[in-house]
Amino acid sequence: MELRDPLSDRLRRWAVVVLALVVGLATMWVYLRMSDRRGLDGCVEAYGAARDAADSALVDVQRSDAATGRLDAAYGVSCGELKLRGELR
Question: Is 81 exposed, middle or buried (0-12, 13-18, 19+ CB in 10 A)?
């Protein structure tokens, strides 16, 4: 009596696991790349709509939807910080 599954079944299971890991890693990479650039457009639009220095100051403290780096996203970087770094044009 054979206790182990046939080699083809084991290879199929490993292929499914490896494929799931690759798809998961690719999805994570795409999400992180998208989140790096998402917040810049919102800040640019908010600065464009600012009419005076008070409006601009309110935009400066506004948190961007995303940041330019993983640590910035974790700490909630503001539009003013992005402007000081020269990342907003």
Answer: buried
